[in-house]
Each structure stands twice: as structure tokens, then as C-alpha cells.
Amino acid sequence: MTNYPRGPQRIVCLTEETTEWLYLLGQQARIVGISGYTVRPRRARDEKPKVSAFLSAKIDRILALQPDCVFGFSDLQADIAAELVRKGVQVTIFNQRSIAEIFGMLYQVAAMVGEAAKGEALLDAMRRRLDEIAAQASVLKRRPRVFFEEWDEPHISCIRWVSQLLTIAGGDDCFAELALMPMGRDRIIASGDEIVARNPDIIIGSWCGKKFRAAKVAARPGWAQVNAVRDEQLFEIKSADILQPGPAALTDGVEQLHRIVMAWSQHHD
């Protein structure tokens, strides 16, 4: 019987989450190109060629790597995907925006590289830990109101999977209704006054591409009266840990959310 390849052998990952997942699956040898924004795992930056940003890609460099599959994320990379498809490259674009969709994407990738069983075992461990965190949060006497800020100017509230992880971790998203919106432009909060009015107990910043500055947030006009500012409950979670819709958010990201909420609850029982 002819020994045909089992799944793609030369993969380009246009975003970080598929790179991290392939490393966790022990299938990093299949990766021939990555996003320049990749920081998880750190070693990937030294081991793999960087061929894309988020909204742009070096098409010629990708083609030179002769990939048999390119993994991308969302409609924001649709133009890159279309150009590669026209060049004859197989492209798989995922569009996960919720916890369930992240799990689904991770399983699909694992199956594509012949590691469905290992992938399911890793995903089961993540599910168990999420259940444990939810159980611990369920006994809290009071759940804090949390404003999670993805960007500062303009204010952008968190995407769906972050809002869902926040709920699991024991907090209540101040702008849960905006989390249903898949695009950042639809989660813009027009005025800081609206945030003040919702009076979050905790503020978490994750400004993609720049460092969260708690002092800058606390100094916003009218924000001194906000519970989170008054009680010095302003925190940063790195975007690579929470805003990548993949393993990082389901592990390190939710753990950081949970620690912040549980620490707050110890002083507000």
C-alpha cells in the first residue's frame, strides 16, 4: 500500500495560537513559518522563519517555503488567505470567538496532524481545570464587577472568550453585552463616563502591543471615584496570555483572571 502523508507536513501559522498548539502536540517540526508576533512558545521565535504580521504577510516568502497548509484567523486575514489560495496554497481560516469555538479549533488542528487522541487528552485537562475554577468561584459571596479593557484610546471592551473566562473565574463583565460583538470596532465604549457609571470593582488592561499603565488609567478625569481606582485594583494581563484564542487563554489567561478575582474576594467577603 502506498504510504501517503498523514496530514499537512509543511505548515505556516499566521497567528500564534496554532503555533503554540502544534508545539504542545509535539508537531512543531511541521511548522515552516510563523507570525512575527509569536511569543508562545518563546523558542519558536528562534526556530521558525517569521513571515507575517497580523493584517499583512510576506506572500513571496510564504510561497518560497512551499507550505501544504496555511493556518489563519478570522475575516481580518481574509485578503491574505485569498491571495494565497489564488497562488494554489491550501488555506484554513478559523474564526473562533468563544470558549467552545476555541476548543473546536484546537481539536480540528490536532486531528489534521494525526494527533486527535493526544489533542483530546490535553483539551480534557483544560476542561477539568476550567470546571475546578468555576466550582471555586461558585461559592464566592460576592462577585466583583470587572472592566476588561482591550484598548485605551478609544476604550474597547473584551471579546467573547475573555468575557466567558472572566465569568468562569468569578467575575462579572461590566460590558457583557458588548462581548457578543466579534469586531473590536463594535466593542468601542464612546465615553469613559459610561465606564465610571458601571463602577467596576476591578479593572484589567490588556493593550495589545503596548504596556498597560495603571497610573494613566487612575488619572482619567472622573475616575477617582471608581471602586477599582479607589481600592487600587488595576491589573495587567499580557495580550499573549489572554487575547490569543488558543491554549494560552484557556490556561495562563484564565488562571490570572482567577487569581485577581480570588484575591479581591478575600477582602470583600
TrEMBL record:
Transmembrane regions: none
Fe/B12 periplasmic-binding domain sequence ranges: 10-265
Domain of life: Bacteria
PROSITE patterns the record matches: FE_B12_PBP
InterPro entries named in the record: ABC_transptr_periplasmic_BD (IPR002491), Vitamin_B12-ABC_binding (IPR051030)
PANTHER family per record: BLL4160 PROTEIN, VITAMIN B12-BINDING PROTEIN
Protein name stated in the entry: ABC transporter substrate-binding protein
